[in-house]
């Protein structure tokens, strides 16, 4: 089933601003979700990062509504008195006599209520049932039934048209929740999803085709490090290397300078998130690296929260041993430096055989003795509550990757969210991602995929799939995604074994890149961050809200949806040098060796290539809107659409 083109065509910085004249002076926006100031999953990130852009558009007429969780209110919410008199009266009524919707205030205005996911959908259904004068929008970030079906290892995408949705929901004991989600989708004035792949899913499972696709964005400024992201990568990589030194103490028989850090992160959905295929690909990669006598070592991190009762003692001991070795080295260095200094003061070259005494050698021997280890470095950093049944650990036992010296691929399973206060790996998630070389997200079910998007804006290459919203979005906008460090794995038209072989090929080719090639690839990846900025992707939420206003209040607001014209040049072109192996880079590249220069013949101008990318990006398609007094045109003052056909 081919993917249909959507309106999700964005632009890059430097293009003209979107000239929006839609009259919102007499309108109020409420955005309702279970994850408002309540972090559960990706919707929290959507709302948090989009809030500033939406507030700039709506000002004090923008309100987020979510559950009152005392602990979250203390840390994430600043309590203030509402300035809108009608809203204040409404809140007072709610506090005194129970919960009433804001539309019941004494001075109604044009209200837009945007509901996210089925948990908030009940409010939408009641609004329509009570015939309240409200423009409603429902956004599904992932269908409830879709999650359950994929978790059951069914051939989901090839059988979408065959499912008896009522029976499947009933069999999984989610029928009432499914009905609520479906009712919300049908009752809403405007129904949206976050990607084309989810739009197809919603059309078959919820029985309504979305009106518009609203891709998820990021506040790119939060991650931006102007001309410094390569340096930040090096700094964060050094911190990960320190952890690795402790974790593999006694078995550190590989060169950390030729060590690549790969990671997968997210909810612990073993099959949906692709951890199963990633582990199998790592086993095959290990074989390829060994038979090709590669000097590259791959360390794969699995950052997926699971049930644990404490840190693994052996893991904690490793970090303690590393710290002890560091302290010993510093002590010996200070003694050595003092004796060297005194020898030079009297004008003599030091006698190296005498500059270190027996006490120094004793300290070093004790430190070396402490690194002796009889067991292999642990795979899991914590004690699992259900070790024997854990999917990742079970697969590790099957493929036999136990961090032995002979293996070129090592595995570290960290079943806990990363935190800068952790005694084990004291890094927050952003810092950890910056220090890695490649993010691997071979998901089977991923309506959008924030993890590869976060990698992209930080300049870290990633592997995604054509079953994820992010992967489809990048395939639509980039002529050759892999040249920009976005590897798209085919999990839609290939079997599991074929997809696993393709993933193994991606990993092996990445391992064969030189350090110089990886630097250039990171430069290219970071340039894609503009595609994911809310500054551009937020426009599709704006279009959805305007469409809802026009449907709910046709006497005040109208819109005209025109068929977009098909023109070329909207995608990132293939870079001049593929694979990325230039010999002369400009700024943003750390110092490289002369040996690497001698191996490369291409010349590369980063600024020139970046400018070509910007020239080849077209203006986003915008919907022409108008209110009763004035028409709203596109960014260039005309009313012709310019995007891809739906």
From TrEMBL:
Residues 596-610 have a biased composition (Acidic residues). The keyword Amino-acid biosynthesis does not apply. Its EC number is 2.4.1.11. Pathway: Glycan biosynthesis; glycogen biosynthesis. PANTHER family: GLYCOGEN [STARCH] SYNTHASE, MUSCLE, GLYCOGEN SYNTHASE. Glycogen synthase participates in the glycogen biosynthetic process along with glycogenin and glycogen branching enzyme. Extends the primer composed of a few glucose units formed by glycogenin by adding new glucose units to it. In this context, glycogen synthase transfers the glycosyl residue from UDP-Glc to the non-reducing end of alpha-1,4-glucan. Transfers the glycosyl residue from UDP-Glc to the non-reducing end of alpha-1,4-glucan. Belongs to the glycosyltransferase 3 family. This is Glycogen [starch] synthase. It comes from Sander lucioperca. The lineage of its organism: Eukaryota, Metazoa, Chordata, Craniata, Vertebrata.
